[in-house]
């Protein structure tokens, strides 16, 4: 769910012109809010620091109209009088290799580029921030993974994008490089990553967690019998799932790494390619549409992913009704892999039209000449001539206390957003005893509108109130205080369902938690006199809910001797460990059946679910409300010629200190709350196995501690950034002369006379870029 991603300095330098359309007097910061919201969930990179350069507001429309359509701002269509770079060259034609038919040339427009890039951005958000987050708890159960391992998988995207961003933006941004080909191959790699992510489903064989074989009390004295095989475990030398399922973690990690590599060009080279082929006034419009469409990706991922989890994982070969399974069963595993197959195939199809575009559309040369003539013409030369001065520039930035503390605030916010994006569905699923599909829908309901709305609100307030750098940091402090207040949602912890042998004793569960906590099955906590002679297998976790409201490890552990199947439900009778009297249930044929347990999760009586959803929504809202103002303050407190470098440094800090370690830290703490671990079969690594029962109280405490400490750190860093910020004397004099409060920026220095200096660091008049995640 998600601080948004910072753009790399190198990439920002290559896309310096992407937002010069901001000189449109009708443009407001609200127009760029979708960009930040998309970054919050899709984690694209905001690379365009030139939006904060001083812009010549003089009318240049005459020059623009010579090379573009006055209505759309696009270059003229093929065959028009104006010819762009390479129009006479075959490379400027749409097509693949030598196949460049005339029929395709009508699609050489910025609108079609935008169309296909919007699809690519949507797919990236749907897979990385939708499907992956939704299926975390499902693949843990299916492949015996611990949360620390699944956290590493979730962090693989950030690791790969961090490693690839600089080389991709450098190589793809060189003169003569074809950005559409880089984008197309990136989408291909992303599609391959999705297919790799789905590969363990086909390589691991059928799901063994639930079978149609009876799992009731057999009154045997030797559990292993003559064969020595443990029921529920593969026989020695049988192959199949005798392999270690948790080793598939490395396949999942590889898929996530490929996702990160493939997505790295989308919000760097994609942004620059759009900007290079439209007028400066239309650039912000096109980019706004691009980022807005990217918001649809995570929303679609949560909704579609949640619905797919209602389908049984092996639905092709197994009818879940025959086993009496429903999505409410504890051993249910949904079809997590379908979404990745669909996304992988669609990405491979999307790559073809992207790679068909030429390196530059017709009229692009005239557009670039026009834009360069209105920008600081020697800025590129200065950037390359000062490479040797990198150490001095780095010392200058690190010696800027406001910039330093804003970076730390971004890292602490990034840690919280990335961590909760990965594990909030798991938290809701366990706290409120919900199915994975319903938990996914609730998380989508919280994060998508809260992220988009908060980002829009933050940008709007900065623009509406006309805040100076000091005022912007105060706004960040206010938003962080409000966000910290709403972290009280984690106080709403639901009590654990009573689980015999784990947090409740056998035979008299209503007496409370008289049994010691169990960290594994081998300790014998699940054994009781009522199931002593049943020969229950520790490898068959098939929990049932007794009519006494207590969960049992399996029908066998509940001492049940009879089993019956009703539609999609299994019922059990003659359960020696269930103390409540039997109940009756009507059959479809009109008869009645007596039962004492069912293979569903006991209903939770916790009344806090919707209160939690509301409070979590406002926590997210105020968290994202600080993202755009935080980036605006970052760009205002550094020199004009250091903004690209400053963004790169901040992006590195946010990734290294925040988004990369976040899922691993959250996963480790969640593992610490486990009360009952899956017992590995003989010959397997004892450290393998997923958690079967969590301590809800401890999980809520750990999440509350993480949220509170993270917010407290953000608040401290934002406060120190404001405390150490010293406005330049020129700004103080201008404010005093105008008689305006210090929180309002005055137009006393016209945009055409140069940037306003703040604390010795040049700051822009306008802000609008989203903060990184």
UniProtKB/TrEMBL annotation:
It is a multi-pass membrane protein. GO terms for molecular function: sodium-independent organic anion transmembrane transporter activity. One of its GO terms (cellular component) is basolateral plasma membrane. Residues 763-773 have a biased composition (Basic and acidic residues). Keywords: Cell membrane, Disulfide bond, Ion transport, Membrane, Transmembrane, Transmembrane helix, Transport. The chain crosses the membrane at residues 113-139, 151-170, 182-203, 248-273, 285-305, 335-357, 402-424, 436-460, 472-493, 608-626, 702-725. GO terms for biological process: monoatomic ion transport; sodium-independent organic anion transport. PROSITE patterns: KAZAL_2, MFS. The keyword Nucleotide-binding does not apply. The keyword Transmembrane applies. Belongs to the organo anion transporter (TC 2.A.60) family. This is Solute carrier organic anion transporter family member. It comes from Gryllus longicercus.
């Amino acid at each position: 769910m998600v601080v948004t991603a910072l753009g790399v300095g190198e990439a920002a330098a290559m896309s310096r012109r992407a937002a010069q359309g901001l000189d449109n007097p009708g443009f407001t910061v609200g127009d760029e809010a979708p960009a930040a919201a998309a970054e919050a969930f899709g984690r694209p990179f905001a690379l365009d620091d030139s939006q904060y350069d001083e812009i010549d507001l003089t009318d240049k429309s005459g020059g623009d109209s010579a090379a573009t359509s006055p209505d759309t701002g696009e270059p003229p269509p093929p065959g028009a009088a104006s010819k762009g770079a390479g129009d006479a060259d075959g490379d400027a034609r749409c097509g693949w290799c030598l196949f460049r038919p005339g029929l395709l040339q009508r699609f050489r427009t910025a609108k079609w580029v935008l169309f296909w890039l919007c699809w690519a951005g949507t797919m990236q958000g749907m897979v990385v921030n939708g499907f992956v987050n939704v299926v975390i708890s499902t693949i843990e159960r299916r492949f015996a993974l611990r949360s620390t391992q699944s956290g590493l998988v979730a962090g693989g995207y950030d690791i790969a994008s961090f490693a690839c961003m600089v080389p991709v933006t450098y190589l793809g941004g060189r003169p003569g490089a074809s950005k559409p080909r880089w984008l197309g191959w990136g989408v291909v790699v992303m599609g391959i990553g999705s297919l790799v992510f789905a590969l363990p489903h086909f390589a691991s064989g059928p799901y063994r967690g639930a079978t149609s074989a009876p799992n009731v009390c057999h009154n045997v004295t030797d559990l292993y019998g003559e064969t020595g095989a443990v029921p529920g475990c593969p026989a020695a030398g049988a192959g199949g799932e005798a392999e270690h399922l948790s080793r598939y973690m490395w396949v999942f990690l590889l898929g996530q790494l490929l996702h990160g590599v493939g997505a790295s060009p989308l919000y760097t080279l994609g942004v620059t390619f759009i900007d290079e082929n439209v007028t400066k006034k239309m650039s912000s419009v096109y980019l706004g549409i691009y980022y807005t469409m990217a918001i649809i990706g995570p929303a679609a991922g949560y909704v579609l992913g949640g619905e797919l989890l209602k389908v049984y994982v092996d639905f092709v070969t197994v009818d879940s009704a025959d086993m009496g399974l429903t999505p409410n069963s504890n051993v249910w595993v949904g079809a997590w892999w379908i979404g990745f197959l669909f996304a992988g195939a669609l990405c491979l199809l999307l790559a073809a039209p992207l790679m068909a575009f030429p390196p530059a559309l017709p009229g692009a040369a005239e557009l670039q000449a026009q834009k360069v003539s209105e920008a600081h013409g020697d800025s590129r030369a200065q950037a390359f001539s000062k490479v040797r001065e990198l150490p001095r520039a780095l010392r200058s930035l690190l010696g800027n206390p406001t910039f330093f503390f804003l970076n730390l605030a971004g890292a602490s916010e990034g840690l919280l957003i990335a961590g909760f994006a990965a594990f909030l569905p798991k938290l809701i699923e366990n706290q409120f005893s919900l199915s994975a599909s319903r938990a996914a829908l609730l998380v989508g309901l919280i994060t998508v509108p809260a992220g988009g709305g908060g980002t829009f609100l933050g940008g709007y307030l900065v623009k509406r109130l006309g805040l100076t750098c000091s005022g912007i940091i105060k706004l960040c402090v206010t938003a962080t205080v409000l966000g910290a207040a709403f972290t009280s949602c984690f106080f709403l912890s639901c009590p654990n369902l009573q689980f015999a042998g784990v947090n409740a004793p056998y035979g008299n569960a209503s007496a409370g938690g008289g049994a010691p906590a169990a960290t594994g099955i081998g300790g014998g906590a699940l054994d009781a006199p009522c199931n002593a002679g049943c020969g229950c297998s520790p490898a068959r976790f098939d929990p049932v809910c007794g009519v006494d409201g207590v969960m049992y490890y399996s029908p066998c552990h509940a001492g049940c001797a009879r089993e019956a199947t009703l539609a999609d439900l299994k019922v059990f009778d003659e359960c020696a460990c269930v103390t409540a009297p039997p109940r009756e249930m009507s059959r479809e044929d009109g008869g009645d059946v007596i039962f004492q347990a069912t293979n569903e999760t006991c209903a939770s009586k916790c009344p806090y679910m919707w209160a939690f959803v509301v409070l979590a929504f406002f926590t997210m809202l105020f968290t994202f409300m600080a993202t755009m103002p935080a980036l605006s303050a970052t760009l205002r407190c550094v020199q004009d010629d250091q903004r690209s470098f400053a963004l790169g440094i901040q992006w590195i800090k946010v990734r290294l200190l925040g988004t990369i370690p976040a899922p691993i830290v959250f996963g480790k703490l969640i593992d610490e709350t486990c009360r009952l671990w899956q017992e590995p079969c003989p010959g397997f690594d004892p450290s393998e196995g997923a958690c079967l029962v969590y301590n809800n109280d401890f999980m809520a405490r750990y999440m509350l501690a993480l949220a509170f400490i993270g917010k407290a750190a953000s608040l401290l860093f934002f406060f120190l950034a404001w405390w150490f910020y010293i406005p330049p004397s020129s700004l103080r004099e201008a404010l005093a002369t105008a008689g305006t409060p210090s929180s309002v920026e005055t137009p006393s220095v016209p945009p055409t006379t140069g940037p306003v200096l703040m604390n010795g660091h040049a700051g822009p008049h306008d802000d609008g870029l989203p903060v990184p995640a």
